[in-house]
Amino acid sequence: KNFRKIICRGFEEHTKIVLGILSKAAETGETIDLQSLFLRFTFDVFTNILTNPENVATFVIAFEHFQSVIMKRAFNPLWPILEMFSETGRNNRKYHKILDDFACSIIRERLQEPPKTESPTDVLQLFMDAKNANEESLNDKEL
């Protein structure tokens, strides 16, 4: 129930923004890049639902990098060997660190502040409130 509310609220807020952009383009006859608009919409909703961060530019770059890497890996069974010695592998390690640092900083920040409301406002808070099979709070890696 809480998960659905969080997702619906995130989509509703960002859908209004996208509809505003599309309406303006329709009125002015402006050409817009729908793929770019929808990609931005997806990232905005995704990051808002998960963590509600304000600045996600570096995260988006790293995330986009791994989207293309995953597609390439799907068609190359030798990717683990090739990436050990290539620039792609070095970039992967760099971008992996960016994603890890981004996630860890949000988790650390959220663990230090008390929840602002009684019910969770995003997916991260849902997981922070969850317990594992041993009835213990999830650790940083699990989060």
TrEMBL record:
Entry keyword set: Iron, Metal-binding, Oxidoreductase
GO terms of molecular function: heme binding; iron ion binding; monooxygenase activity; oxidoreductase activity, acting on paired donors, with incorporation or reduction of molecular oxygen
Coiled-coil stretches noted in the UniProt entry, renumbered to this chain: none
SUPFAM superfamilies, alphabetized: Cytochrome P450
Gene3D superfamilies per record: Cytochrome P450
InterPro entries (UniProt xref): Cyt_P450, Cyt_P450_sf
Membership in a protein family: Belongs to the cytochrome P450 family.
The name this protein goes by in its record: 12228_t:CDS:1
Originating organism: Ambispora gerdemannii
Lineage of source species: Eukaryota, Fungi, Fungi incertae sedis, Mucoromycota, Glomeromycotina
